[in-house]
Write a structure and sequence with these properties.
Immunoglobulin-like; mainly beta; 304 residues; 7-stranded antiparallel sheet; 2 domains; 6-stranded mixed sheet; 44% strand; Jelly Rolls; 1 helix
């Protein structure tokens, strides 16, 4: 009976899920470009879509359209800058220096740069003439400094204006609901706290007997699990064990137990009356509530 009831319990458990997180966003656009001299360049205006982060988050990768074979093998860096008033920009993040080796291909490079809404993407090209911009491109505008200085995060400089200049760069911006500097979709193993949606949980309950003699014990056991990720919402959680008489409509809590490192819990209880049992965990910081299936245990009268 126990195995049958456990299977039914798993099928009947109630799962409280969480709404899906905002999706990753494309920022900027790659395009065929002409060789550039040494420069740092940011796209400040574009008719096709933002080259600036529309919301706070983490840039998890950047893209670059590689040039023809004769121009391949020239290094460049992805940069992120924050407008500082007028033509001034402050560098707030950068990637590793990359050297494209495959011609005429949109290449993607991983990175991890926390950004704020309004931060602008661009490129630093050392004195290797890597293709970085295209023009004339009506409606586009860039801020440019033509030198071979690799400006580091924290640097604030005044930039010149490059009208009708499109920068050959794109990036993927992911949300960062817990503010830990890791992109929620591809980098963060644990979305917890902050503005993260509460993690969905599943709760099961099983009784080792469905009939007992008056005064005998029944073992109530079960497990708590997360529906998407493993971690804080299953281990060391308080589970309320509840019961009601068959003709009653409301369950009441009669005991509390803690889940172990695997999310399991159990309690042995002497019974004098027939009850229906269930388990519940209430919502806590970052963890959604969950309610188990119910288990009925009938108490048989002792024969005289």
């Amino acid at each position: 009976m126990k195995g049958i009831r456990a299977g039914l319990a798993a099928a009947a458990l109630i799962v409280v899920g969480a709404p899906s997180a905002p999706a990753a966003t494309q920022v900027g656009e790659t395009t065929g470009a002409a060789p550039c001299g040494a420069q740092t360049v940011f796209q400040t205006n574009s008719p096709i879509g933002p080259y600036a982060a529309p919301v706070d988050g983490v840039i998890t990768s950047w893209q670059y359209r590689s040039p023809m074979a004769s121009q391949i093998g020239r290094a460049l860096e992805f940069k992120v800058a924050r407008p500082a008033g007028g033509n001034s920009m402050t560098i707030v993040g950068e990637s590793e220096r990359e050297t494209p080796t495959i011609p005429l291909t949109t290449l993607t490079f991983p990175t991890r740069i926390a950004v704020q809404a309004g931060d602008v993407i661009g490129l630093y090209v050392p004195g290797t003439s890597a293709p970085c911009t295209v023009g004339p491109s009506p409606g586009y505008q860039a801020f440019v400094i033509a030198d071979n200085v690799d400006r580091q995060p924290g640097d604030t400089s005044i930039y010149g204006v490059g009208n009708q200049t499109q920068v050959n760069v794109g990036a993927i911006l992911e949300p960062d609901c817990d503010g830990d500097g890791f992109g929620d979709e591809t980098q963060d193993p644990s979305l917890f706290g902050g503005t993260c949606a509460a993690r969905g949980r599943a709760l099961t309950l099983d009784a080792d007997k469905n009939k007992v003699k008056r005064g005998k014990k029944v073992l109530l056991s079960g497990s708590l699990s997360e529906t998407t990720r493993a971690g804080e919402c299953a281990t060391g959680q308080t589970v309320e064990l509840q019961r009601k008489r068959p003709k009653q409509s409301t369950f009441t809590t009669f005991a509390q137990v803690q889940t172990d490192p695997l999310g399991a819990f159990s309690l042995s209880k002497k019974l004098k009356k027939t009850f229906e049992f269930r388990a519940e965990v209430v919502q806590s910081a970052g963890c959604a509530p969950a309610l188990s299936n119910s288990e009925r245990v009938k108490v048989k009268k002792k024969r005289r």
